[in-house]
Amino acid sequence: MTLTDTYKTIQKASEPVLFKDKNSKFFGYAFPVTTEEAVKDNLDYLKKKHHTAGHWCYAYQLGTDPKQFQFRANDDGEPNNSAGMPIYGQIQSFQLTNILIVVVRYFGGVKLGVGGLINAYKTTSQMAIEASKTVTRTIKKQYLVTCDYKNLNKVMRIIKENNLKITDQTLALDCQIIFSVRLKNSESVAAKFKTIYEVSIKALN
């Protein structure tokens, strides 16, 4: 089985988009997020920016492992599953993660019905994603290698041969090197260090 070590997200927050239906206005926003705290901060920002709006409906998905995705869809007072789930459906349709989509609604005086709401929230979300730059990122794994000076050359040779990126190193009584490697190559690279006597390697994430 091939290990998937990439994921799709958006590079930066989108410019707001606007969808109108029967005098109701739907403003769509997409934000790159990696924590629930960032989700809350962006929602707070939009509630201040659009303080006279009626609804701030949203959906988000966090994480890079499909088996451990965190997600939530919120209708914020709209009929059940008429807002949050259509927004989340677009996140799934575009196969994105680490993303928050918020649709802010100003009621225009004419009820749209559940079908109209689903279409409005889905369309606005799609527009917000399409207004964003989508990027594919690689999942990296970090390791700490500890060795004495006599084995440093062997360690550095493996790092060079495998084009590993050193993110930190400490050369004191012994040598400690932190490096990152693509997830799909991580086990084979770690195994190479384990063949050197007196060298220890530990995964950091």
In short:
By secondary structure, the protein is an alpha+beta fold. Helices cover 31% and strands 35% of the residues.
Residue stretches low in confidence (pLDDT < 50, at least 5 long) are: none
For this structure, the CATH topology of the largest domain is Ribosomal Protein S5, domain 2
Strand content: 35-45%
Major sheet: 5 strands, antiparallel
Mean pLDDT: 91
Helical coverage, percent range: 25-40%
CATH superfamily of the largest domain: Impact, N-terminal domain
> What's the order of the H and E elements?
EEEHEEHEHEEHEEHE
Spatial gap, N to C terminus: 22 Å
Largest beta sheet: strand ordering: 2-3-6-4-5
Fold and architecture overview:
The chain is of the alpha+beta class and 205 residues long. The protein has 2 domains: 6-137, Impact, N-terminal domain (Ribosomal Protein S5, domain 2), CATH 3.30.230.30; 139-203, Alpha-Beta Plaits (2-Layer Sandwich), CATH 3.30.70.260. The protein has 5 helices and 11 strands; from the N terminus they run βββαββαβαββαββαβ. It has a 5-stranded antiparallel β-sheet with strand order 2-3-6-4-5, sandwiched between helices. A 4-stranded antiparallel β-sheet has the order 9-10-8-11. The model has no long low-confidence stretch (mean pLDDT 91). Belongs to the IMPACT family.
